[in-house]
Amino acid sequence: MPKLTIDHIPVEVPPGTSVLEAAKTAGIWIPHFCYHPALGSVGACRLCAVKLLDGPVKGIQMSCMLPAQDGMVVSTTDPEALKMRSLVIEWLMMNHPHDCPVCDEGGECLLQDYTVAGGHGIRRFEGKKRTHVNQDLGPHIQHEMNRCIQCYRCVRFYQEYAGGSDFGVMGSARRVYYGRFQEGTLESPFSGNLVDICPTGVFTDKTARFRARYWDYEMAPSVCPHCSLGCNTVPAARYRELLKTMARENPAVNGHFICDRGRFSNAAVNDPARPRVPLVDGEEVSWAAALDATMLRIEEFMELYGPGRLALIGSPRLPLEGSVLLARLAGLIGTEYLCYFAGRDEGERVAAAVSLLADGRTASMADVRKADCVVILESDLRDEGPMMLLAVRQAWRSGAPVFLVGKHAPLAQALAVSIEAIELSIIEEVPLAIFERAVVICGTRNNPPAATESLAHTDAKIAYLFPGPNAFGAGLLMKEHGAVALAEAVASGRVKGIIAVEADIPEALLAGVPFVVAADWLPTETVRRAQIVLPTAAWVETDGTYVTFEGRAQRFRKVMASGLPIRGLPARYHASPDKPAPLHPPRVHRSVSPGGELRPAWRFVAELIERCGGDAVTEPFVGRWERLRGLDPEGEGVMLWEF
């Protein structure tokens, strides 16, 4: 391994490591724009200049393009290197607008940081600044081309890494332009990553434009709830409103990026129509009154129908804490019907997949990116797990063939890769034995249990896409407690009451059930049909745990306080309802914020457990669940399960 010295610090790194990366291992930060860990180096910005004092190479060099070699003596603080970097900043600022006060990138802009760090503060060039016309790139991305520093990050990500073809670089010399041939919405399902990857303010989040500065945000490490992949995110909120979501790096999971679904799906959290206050027969009541009414009606239900006729319903989107407690509540009530899945087929598929993966054959997204063969088995990745598309593309870029078993040929276009075999009939037709790191990707939506069983005879790792962020955890509990699917329970004719906790129940299954209690944060059909409604906190309003498709338990942290966003408060929350002030905070003294009477789903279940005579539940209890091993409290997630 090469040994070199950087700023008098001995460094030893693997072969092929650049000097810039080697400096990072020693805690030395070399300024750079064009380099990105996921995209590599192109030497376009010339900002990472260092001086080599001794060794096989000497003089001013670009550290991102220079492989570390034995005997190198590198200085990042040499006067010549400092002068080179300051000149790079100066010529970049010749045409850059002085609009930091109105730029949404302010506070998180690399150009801003490096300009200050380099000491540049006076514009010596007296000519006119070069200007460009911006484009409308759709409802999510704001384009401000005048702020561009030509680092090529956006194009390298969009075209090379993500496989998009409707965005690129045009022009020549000093007339370089990054955009589309014609205005229009960006087509890639990963276009939102342009916001994170751009080191200046060329691409910003239009949905959060002019709403807050970086230092104004409430932020916490979180996990995306929109599929089972468990991508790590950083939601940003202000004034009880979720403004935007940023990618959080996790090399074993999503790497550096997230999909547009996870980035821009904030409307449901901010929706004023969310359940915000407890309701009993349509009337607003306190939480205590709603819980009292729930227990009273459960007692009346037991007297009328007898024990065992009440079903407790969870779902794949219910965090692990609530799912675990739901099983405990079922034992206290004595019900025969504990359900984590609404449809019978869905429950059977998840149970079969969990059983198959019990031998540790799960493949992470990192495994898919490094695979030497990928088989996609009857899965629509763009719908079931968009970031898996990106992982498959990285494997293909490294030379791995991609086989498709099924009828989802449009995946070839979505991936921008060549599919080696289209519409194969069975998995046995793929020669997996000749590959060392083969991965089979399949989903529970289109694959019956029989297809899952056929995977037991392959030696490849398996990436199984589940129907929700905690579907794997629900599958484990279903297997442990012998839970059934709700459709099966209702079909028996014995179910006359339902307590649904963050569960999406089809209207057909609710039709013959006279008693419904719903605890949820979404205005679902179950909530609309329920006699008692308990509003729960969304994932950004509480701490919790999701078990991802690979059996990895990841903690997400509370980002913001519960309550209605200040912008758009209904008139009834103001001192003068006849003169609402939708952009001004309420002028009423309260113990809680308007619409803030929300509790985590697990707390609602815990209250029922205590009222049924069970032991009190304190937070955090899930870390004591004996099936979790190595649960990382910071949210990185390194858990594997045991039966």
Structural features:
globular; seven-stranded mixed β-sheet; five-stranded mixed β-sheet; 27 strands; 20 helices; iron; 643 residues; alpha/beta; disordered C terminus
Can you give a write-up of this model?
With 643 residues, this protein is α/β, with parallel strands linked by helices. The protein is built from 20 helices and 27 strands. A 7-stranded mixed β-sheet has the order 15-14-25-24-23-16-17. Strands 2-1-5-3-4 form a 5-stranded mixed β-sheet, with helices on both faces. A 5-stranded parallel β-sheet has the order 20-19-18-21-22. Helix 9 packs parallel to helix 16 (471-481) and helix 10 (344-356) packs across helix 16 (471-481). Its cofactor is [4Fe-4S] cluster; [2Fe-2S] cluster. It comes from Geobacter anodireducens. It holds the Pfam family Molybdop_Fe4S4. Residues 2-80 form the 2Fe-2S ferredoxin-type domain. Residues 217-273 form the 4Fe-4S Mo/W bis-MGD-type domain.
Secondary structure layout plus pairing:
Blueprint (H helix, E strand, L loop, with lengths): L2 E4 L2 E4 L6 H7 L23 E6 L4 E4 L10 E3 L3 H15 L16 H8 L23 E3 L9 H9 L6 E3 L6 E3 L13 H5 L5 E3 L12 E2 L2 E2 L8 E7 L2 E7 L12 H5 L2 H4 L8 E2 L2 E2 L2 H19 L4 E4 L6 H14 L3 E3 L4 H13 L8 H5 L3 E5 L3 H4 L1 H12 L4 E4 L5 H5 L3 E6 L13 E6 L5 H6 L6 E5 L5 H11 L4 H6 L5 E5 L5 H4 L4 E6 L4 H5 L2 E4 L8 E4 L5 E4 L44 H11 L32
Parallel strand pairs: 1-5, 16-17, 16-23, 18-19, 18-21, 19-20, 21-22, 23-24, 24-25
Antiparallel strand pairs: 1-2, 3-4, 3-5, 6-9, 7-8, 10-12, 11-12, 12-13, 14-15, 14-25, 26-27
Keywords: 2Fe-2S, 4Fe-4S, Iron, Iron-sulfur, Metal-binding, Oxidoreductase, Quinone
GO molecular function: oxidoreductase activity
Cofactor: [4Fe-4S] cluster; [2Fe-2S] cluster
